[in-house]
Amino acid sequence: MHAGAQVRGRGAGRGERGSVTAELALVLPAVVVVLLVCTSLGLAAIGQLRCADAARAAARAAAIGEPADVVVAVAQDLAGPDAEVTLQRHGDWVVVAVSRPVVAPVAGLGPLHASAEARAWVEPGEPP
Prior knowledge:
The structure is a single chain. This protein is an alpha+beta fold. It has one domain (21-121). It is built from 2 helices and 3 strands, in the order H-H-E-E-E. The chain has helices at 19-63, 68-79; strands at residues 84-90, 93-102, 112-121. Helix 1 (19-63) runs antiparallel to helix 2 (68-79). The chain is rod-shaped, with a radius of gyration of 29 Å.
């Protein structure tokens, strides 16, 4: 053994014992909050995509002359049964707006809503 070398035994570092547990106890709530926020953002993005797809498909159905109840059924099939659907006709265009609540796993975020609107030119000819 060298003259200047120090030997650490089992008793060394006793003041640091349990520090990993304490650090984990401090960091774990922050990790949980970050995961909940990421989950909320993911659910909101999925809700927005569902509304956009539903509005586009419903506008296409309205443009080819489907009745209003069929247009609403198409939108609710894609966006979910709790989706609100509005159908308007402006000259040669139909406008469909779809909105739905988004479930957020974080209670303090309040109600989140996804919404989308789509327009389509009404096809010429007789409706089916």
